[in-house]
């Protein structure tokens, strides 16, 4: 922990630091991030900091190494008491033989690292330190050439609202809480009674006193749909510690609230009785009790012929809420952007192999997901991208595979190679992928359908490699895996045939591409969907079969 202070008896441009005493409680620090600074070039390249789970883990590993030498480091720190380690740059870039812009290779020096950065902290006169200021930090020798990472650094990329520069002294403690998950900690000592009291509160440098990541420091995330995909998403977000998840669940509400969901996961192992932070039956209750939300994730089935997603979004959308469509289908963002034309819409394409049966999630394929921006044409693309990358940071756990999607259109066509063919055929034949292959369905139905998808995609400007067909067929080798559409049919639920097969056929018609196999699959799935609607009471048929001359039309309830 580094404690920066300003003394009213000193000049306005002078800052001092209190020596640091690290205790055994340092092991409790869970969110520490360092950035390697090995050269001037590297310092410049790192001027825009991005959160990285791998760097956090590396920093924690590094921390365990130097923890063994804490006592010797404490002696060094005591010797350095009273030395000035942070001061304004007054025409010189050097301090005690160290060049701020150059490499620092003197292992014998007490100063572990020196860095020039634009920190937004209050000094004695309540002004904000500008880019001409140079802050220099003291640390242990094991922290040589490591620079603490702060989200308050001004950079070309937008900074999230909760890390805006601090303008009021009353915000100091909240800033401490916000910064702590990202670095060791900084406390500003000011001549005012309020800030002095704050300093005294933590002056013993006991890490156990440092505020942990609280609800206020986490992103509020709404998840609508807790099936196989939604449950793993919710668990991952909670596991990462950067999100407070509110889940909207209807049919499984009682089971989730009373018993939780058991998870057997290839990524997270065996998890018993998982429950998100909050569970509600409706979006309205979720917003009322836990909103507004920074991110609203929709993972439920995308079934526009039964429940369009736009009315659901309308119930939770507020200015500043990013919409995440972690759903199957092609072109699913179009009706959303039409309805919410200034919203930041994030596409999520997941290759996960996860299903929910009777309160147990079977997760057999690593959560590999690509998130990308569906450009709304209203806001700067850089702003939309920044929000998307923040969500990626929140979603990433180190156990899943998450990446930024540079080409959303390509990614969605790529997944359609699987969903429009394997998913559809398994659902119609009531056979899992392994049995479908053994029974001959792969060669007779799936491969021809895949070639049609590739032809339609190419006409739409997306050139998919032929090797992708075999990749998809082999994706669940070793498992008798039932794709999501088959699971839906077996459970008597609706299936996503319109956004998966129907939207692809719409593009085929527009581009003049023949797709006879896909057309048959679509028409068969339509019949299955109508049967499910009848079973669920969406309409009632007469006791006797109508004659064609009766011109009977189905009336939906």
TrEMBL record:
InterPro entries: 6-PGluconate_DH-like_C_sf (IPR008927), 6PGD_dom2 (IPR013328), ApbA (IPR003710), KPA_reductase (IPR013752), KPR-Related (IPR051402), KPR_N (IPR013332), NAD(P)-bd_dom_sf (IPR036291)
Keyword Kinase: no
The UniProt record lists the keyword Oxidoreductase: yes
Signal peptide annotation: none
Keyword annotations of the record: NADP, Oxidoreductase
Single GO cellular component term: cytoplasm
Residue span(s) of domain Ketopantoate reductase N-terminal: 221-374
GO biological process entries: pantothenate biosynthetic process
Domain of life: Eukaryota
Name used for this protein in its record: Unnamed protein product
Organism from which the protein derives: Ambrosiozyma monospora (Yeast)
